[in-house]
Amino acid sequence: MRFLLVLVAAAPLLAQSHFAKHNFTVGAGIGLPGAQLTPAFANSGGLSVGYGYRFHRNLQADFGLDTLFGAAGVRDYLSTGGGYLRIRDFQYLLPFGGRAILPLAEGRVLLSAGGGGAYMRYSERLKQPSSYYRYECPFCGSRSGWGSYALGGVSYALDRFQVFRVGFTVKAYRGHTDGDSLGAVPAVETMDRWLNLFGNFSIHF
Fold it and tell me: pTM score, two decimals?
């Protein structure tokens, strides 16, 4: 009888201690360039994907990819045997780090803040005519480098089991890239800043 009473008393604590360890996130929003990227780069739309492993109720390891479209304003064309093919630029930001999580309202609301390292790569890509035949792009340039990021976010559970969530994340990147000229950025090392604002949808289990 005493054992049953202990279990009943501990049930709320056990429920509060339970948390989903895996989460996959997709998002969409805007990236705002800063430092030596302005005024050569412009604000641009983007998409994000990420995976988080929550190894503690208040701690999570993060890996992800933010992709921005056309921030350098490249609108060139390459003459090929298949006609003129468009060249556009893309920015890839790969964050890897962690975050601290503060659950509120029995876990329905999660506040988070964290940071870590980041790999940054900007490249020009040729729009291919099909998936069966591809043209090389001898004039497509790229730049890359390393940096760091910090983030802050909030998410809200849509269901009673807290599997599906919507939220908002702010990521601030800073680092250096070097390589080819890209848009109006010359072929020298630059100090880069990005402020990415993304709305998110995530699945937790």
Answer: 0.88
Locate 67 and state its tokens.
Answer: 């992709």
Exposure of 104 in the CB half-sphere (CA atoms within 13 A): 8
8 A C-beta contact, residue 78 and residue 60: no
* Closest by Cα among 49, 51, 59 to 113: 59
| DSSP code string of 104-149 | ETTTTEEEEEEEEEEEEEEEEEE--S-SS-----TT--EEEEEEEE
Backbone dihedral angles phi then psi of residue 73, each to the nearest 5 degrees: 70, 30
Q: Which fold is adopted by the domain 20-204?
A: Porin (2.40.160)
CA–CA separation, 148 and 191 (whole Å): 12
Q: What is the pLDDT of residue 128?
A: 86
